[in-house]
């Protein structure tokens, strides 16, 4: 009887949750390393949770150790994992039959899908598209470019990160189960990649600007500019398209990005020096 | 000059540190934005924005997947804009300067991660003792100190001692070589877009989408936003369509 009375339900406050979220956003990569990747960052973000929920030293040590294990995901969508971790810790502290291993296996099952989704949407689509918008303004010396880009990307990202962190905390582990099992995640990823690829094609046409400047004179005929007389008639922006596809092919064959950059750099200097392309 | 170098170095330190609530990743350390801010500090935001935009175009598709970054765009954008403005470089030349800096910066980051791989042992011990403050300290302070060196101190030294020699080097370059650098700067963005392609067309079934986007922009001259909106609509229709047939 007395044991039952002594059990007051432990609850994370809104302040605790905000701290978890803010630490996650800021410090997930605080000690990024090859041994546990974001492990130290995850553990740091769980400190407000541990502080609130666990009183004995054994419980605290155990909780700290389980969150120091290897972890690596996308920061943005990773706040979903943080919300689920906070929720599971709260359930465990209130006597739910959850073991540390169960919490860590949920974490491990979240890392991959969340990283794939976050990397595709943010690094693969959202940031490149918005930054391309800013670049197109910035290249003309319009300082609104960087400002518009910053306002848009921050204004889209932070409310989302907070919103799904809270949703994940409220729904606990059920959320991700329904996401991965319904195949919704897979569909979303293909859709994002589809749109991102279309954007990459449009960017290729719009923002790579070079062509042949050399003219060819055959016999007594007036010199012909191959770019305007032939290539532009065939496919506009053909050379940028071929260059992107060529580099893509090299990347697929496993060539190092920096080697490609230096090679293009050298080729560009030589062809520009002799006024062949421009 | 001393104060300008200190101000830019402090800004760069903040960008390199974990103290930004990750705003550095989304916005502020992107060369476009970083260049604009450094331009503001040095009194020429327009030129800072132009150089930043050019550097950013090359690295638009550089992704950090699993933590491996082939280029450090923070230090590259910082030094290219700061030195570009101080030594009155053409923006294309500043871009040419950024390329090797980005590579060198990437190897410094590998060094950082390797050094930081020695530290989790210390953190494990703190966990055994239930030392919450110690763990927070370890996750905040070493990363910030490192940022004070790279990019902080490096930026300061390059601006304070490097500007003079670099200016005379560029003055000595023949015009045709400078033109060559400009052309090289025009080719480099292809790497950025090819990397995007590599990442998103892992499954080559989706590759036609790339050509659809190209045709819309190249023949019809549509803006990027128009292409994105069209693409989203097509993706939605395709998804719903499949469901309709099944139902």
Topology overview:
The complex is a heterodimer of chains A (278) and B (247).
Chain A: H1 2-6, H2 14-27, H3 39-45, H4 47-53, H5 57-66, H6 75-93, H7 100-138, H8 144-171, H9 174-181, H10 184-207, E1 215-216, E2 224-225, H11 226-234, H12 238-252, H13 257-273
Antiparallel strand pairs in A: 1-2
Helix pairs in contact in A: 2-3, 2-4, 2-6, 6-7, 6-8, 7-8, 7-10
Chain B: H1 2-16, H2 23-28, H3 31-42, H4 45-58, H5 73-86, H6 91-116, H7 120-128, H8 132-171, H9 175-187, H10 189-200, H11 208-218, H12 224-246
Quick structural summary:
The complex is a heterodimer of chains A (278) and B (247). With 278 residues, chain A is mainly alpha-helical.
Q: List the helices and strands of chain A in order.
A: HHHHHHHHHHEEHHH
What's the gyration radius of chain B in Å? 22 Å
Mean pLDDT across all residues of chain A, rounded? 89
How many individual β-strands of chain B? 0
Q: Per the principal axes of the C-alpha atoms, what is the gross shape of chain B?
A: flat
Which class of secondary structure composition applies to the elements of chain A? mainly alpha
- Stretches of chain A where pLDDT is under 50 for at least 5 consecutive residues are 1-5
How many strands appear in the DSSP assignment of chain A?
A: 2
What fraction, in percent, of the residue positions of chain B are helical?
Answer: over 70%
The end-to-end span of chain B amounts to 70 Å
Shape field of chain A: elongated
Order of helices and strands of chain B: HHHHHHHHHHHH
Give helix % range of chain A.
over 70%
User: What does the oligomeric state look like here?
Assistant: heterodimer
Strand content of chain B: under 5%
Structural class of chain B: mainly alpha
């Amino acid at each position: 009887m007395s044991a039952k009375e002594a059990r007051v339900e432990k609850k994370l406050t809104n302040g605790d949750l905000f701290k978890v979220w803010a630490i996650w956003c800021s410090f997930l990569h605080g000690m990024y390393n090859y041994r546990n990747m974001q492990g130290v960052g995850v553990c740091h973000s769980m400190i407000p949770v541990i502080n609130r929920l666990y009183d004995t030293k054994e419980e605290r040590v155990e909780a700290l150790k389980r969150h120091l294990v290897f972890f690596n995901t996308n920061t943005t969508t990773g706040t979903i994992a943080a919300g689920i971790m906070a929720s599971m810790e709260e359930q465990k502290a209130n006597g739910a039959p959850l073991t540390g291993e169960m919490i860590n296996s949920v974490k491990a099952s979240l890392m991959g899908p969340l990283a794939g989704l976050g990397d595709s949407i943010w690094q693969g689509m959202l940031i490149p598209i918005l930054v391309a918008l800013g670049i197109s303004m910035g290249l003309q010396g319009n300082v609104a470019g960087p400002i518009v880009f910053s306002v848009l990307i921050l204004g889209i990202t932070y409310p989302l990160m907070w919103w799904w962190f809270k949703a994940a905390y409220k729904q606990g582990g059920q959320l991700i189960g329904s996401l991965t099992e319904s195949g919704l995640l897979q569909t979303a990823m293909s859709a994002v990649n589809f749109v991102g690829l279309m954007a990459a094609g449009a960017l290729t046409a719009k923002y790579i600007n070079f062509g042949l400047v050399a003219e060819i004179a055959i016999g007594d005929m007036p010199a012909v500019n191959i770019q305007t007389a032939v290539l532009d008639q065939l496919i506009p922006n053909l050379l940028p398209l071929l260059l992107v596809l060529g580099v893509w092919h090299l990347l697929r064959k496993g060539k190092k990005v920096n080697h490609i950059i230096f090679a293009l750099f050298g080729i560009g200097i030589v062809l520009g020096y002799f006024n062949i392309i421009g | 000059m001393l104060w300008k170098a200190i101000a830019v170095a402090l800004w760069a330190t903040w960008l390199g540190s974990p103290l930004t609530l990750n705003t550095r990743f989304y916005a502020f350390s992107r060369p476009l934005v970083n260049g604009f801010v450094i331009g503001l500090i040095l009194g020429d935001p327009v030129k800072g924005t132009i150089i930043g935009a050019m550097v950013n175009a090359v690295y638009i598709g550089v992704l950090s997947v699993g933590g491996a970054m082939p280029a450090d765009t923070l230090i590259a954008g910082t030094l290219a804009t700061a030195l570009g403005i101080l030594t009155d470089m053409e923006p294309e030349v500043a871009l040419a300067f950024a390329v090797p800096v980005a590579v060198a910066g990437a190897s410094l980051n590998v060094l950082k991660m390797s050094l930081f791989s020695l530290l989790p042992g210390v953190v494990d011990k703190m966990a055994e003792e239930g030392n919450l403050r110690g763990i927070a300290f370890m996750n905040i302070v070493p990363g910030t100190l490192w940022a004070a060196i790279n990019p902080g101190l490096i930026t300061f030294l390059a601006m304070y001692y490097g500007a003079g020699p670099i200016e005379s080097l560029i003055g000595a370059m023949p015009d045709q070589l400078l033109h060559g650098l400009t052309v090289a700067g025009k080719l480099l963005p292809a790497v950025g877009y090819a990397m995007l392609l590599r990442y998103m067309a892992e499954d080559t079934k989706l590759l036609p989408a790339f050509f659809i986007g190209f045709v819309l922009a190249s023949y019809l001259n549509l803006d990027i936003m128009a292409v994105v909106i069209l693409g989203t609509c097509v993706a939605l229709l395709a998804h719903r369509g499949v469901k309709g047939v099944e139902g």
